[in-house]
Amino acid sequence: MKENTNQTIIYNTGILFIRLFVTTICGLLTTRYALQALGITDFGVFSLIGSIVTFISILNQIMISTSNRFISIEIGIGKTKDINEQFNINFIIHVAIAIATLLIGLPLGHWYIHNFVNFDGDINDVIFVFNLSIISAAISFIGIPYNGLLMAKERFIVFSTVDVFVHIIKTIIAYLLINFFVDKLQVYAIALSILTVLPVLLFYLYCSKYYHKETELHVVTNKKKYKKVFSFSSWVAFGAFVSVGQGQGAAMIVNAFFNTVMNAAMGIANTVNILITSFASNVSQPIAPQITKSYAANNYERCEELLIISTKFTFLSMFLVSAPLMIDAKWLLSLWLGQVPPYVITFTLLIVINTLITSANSGISNLIFASGKIALYQIIVNMLRIFSMVGAYLILKKGCVAYSLFYVYIVFSFLIFLSSQWVLKKTIHLGYSVLFKHSYIPSLAVTICFIPVCFIHWNVHPLIRIVLLMLYLMVIVYHIGLSRQERKYLYNFLTSKNKQTR
């Protein structure tokens, strides 16, 4: 399938949704089987070690978006030699990160485990799990440039297939642990480590075969290019730390004024939000590399088209997935949890509203990142996020209810939405009137047509009400949210696929 086409976006979106469905099911089953096999104490070890490794490897998480961006830029320009050079720059940086992770992470992790971890069993078991986890994580860092190349080449089918395969094997291993093996903790740790490293090997083999010229390894000594990558990543790091701080800060702020019941409610609401957001990200993710490559090729008309697609379709997909909660959150949460803890419904709805506003900016950050002119965007957006945390703290200090925090977050998310439009015009010189006309106004029209209907009381079973209103929502999305050209293209794509399957 050709790169940089709308058909590719739809195809890759379908691939990512299939991956999400399989990995979600596998994740739920793996957690259940592993908990049953290991017991609460040993299972808790993996949760703890996972948190430590995630904290230590935050630098690598920052470099992922940087690697994807620079490789996509070179692919957009189209010179294989430059693609190979940029790949090697990112490869060398990730090797350095992997080595630094081992040199810093191993002693730091051992110190933390020996001084702060409370474990009823043998502490050496915790050390064993940590050592394997940090080593396998470091090796996986080296595979990031290969993943970045595959994403830039829009080969979502490759890493999605690998991800699905790994999740299925992980589920099988967790199930076998229940009735087999004596040293279950060690066996599970070894298995997870192998499955963490396996994708790196598979990506290497695939890229070596199909993208040999792009991934041929050699040392790049151009310091200016390394400096450019690190300069870009420093601004990405600023945004990443603030974003993590805002998310984790909400729990800390609530805990400072209320008891853990509120934290439990927020935790459940965040779990729901993560699931909903993952569906929406499957729409924006296939579009991101096309935006970067189109900008690199100076195809600004295509950039504008992709920006409209990204903002509109990410918001609408997010709206479709979260709509059942707007219709009857109480029934759905009761179906899932049985007894719904206090404030969960309010927290969930407010977090979803906040995320919906944020999703309307999808694509803007990708376009600004593609330009490399990210300083102004990062400063304004992240300062507003910092102010939102300060505002949330002050409003709770005055005695407001816990969920008032998200009223503040919602206000600042709307300010970020508006300021992003200004930064887009300031840095890219792209007028936002077209974006409002073709993306925001149709999205707002769908919202206005749907929300009032949710408040109408029906004397029917909640499931029937949800199904009927979701059908109504799909109709208004199709006729109001999509343009005539988008409806025609979607129809042609679906009918052509249907003909191919016959």
List keywords for this structure.
19 helices; about 500 residues
Oligomer: single chain
Structural class: mainly alpha
Helix content: over 70%
C-alpha end-to-end distance: 20 Å
Order of helices and strands: HHHHHHHHHHHHHHHHHHH
Describe this structure in words.
The protein is an all-alpha fold. The protein has helices at residues 6-56, 58-77, 80-116, 123-142, 144-152, 156-179, 184-210, 212-215, 223-257, 260-284, 288-296, 300-337, 344-359, 364-371, 375-397, 404-428, 433-454, 462-481, 484-501. It is globular, with a radius of gyration of 24 Å.
Strands, helices and their partners?
Layout: H1 6-56, H2 58-77, H3 80-116, H4 123-142, H5 144-152, H6 156-179, H7 184-210, H8 212-215, H9 223-257, H10 260-284, H11 288-296, H12 300-337, H13 344-359, H14 364-371, H15 375-397, H16 404-428, H17 433-454, H18 462-481, H19 484-501
Outline:
The protein has helices at 6-56, 58-77, 80-116, 123-142, 144-152, 156-179, 184-210, 212-215, 223-257, 260-284, 288-296, 300-337, 344-359, 364-371, 375-397, 404-428, 433-454, 462-481, 484-501. By secondary structure, the protein is an all-alpha fold.
